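From the pipeline queue, job 12 of 40. The input is one protein chain; the requested action is below.

Action: predict structure.
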Amino acid sequence: MLHRLGEILKATCLKWRSEVIEFNGEPDHVHLLIDYPPDVEVSKLVNNLKTVSSRLIRKEFAEEVNRTYSKPVFWTGAYFVASTGGVTLEQLKAYVDNQRSPGD
């Protein structure tokens, strides 16, 4: 499911003229490093990523999602965004890569 989620997020970003540089997930959240143009509103991009991924993951993995999530919501309304100023791209990639994955 995590692999498919990454594919969905990458495809959705392309439609926004954006690119997923790094992606990793934990049992209760994901980490994304995204390169997006300055004219893209980050709140709209995040909302679209959540909407599209929720719809497709619920459709493609209905049994697993229904068994795991008791609420009809796949994502919460919250998200955290930070700019990359002050660290290198390699440092950010390492941070995302070193997050726990489900089952670790």
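Job complete. Residues 24 and 87 are 19 Å apart (CA to CA).
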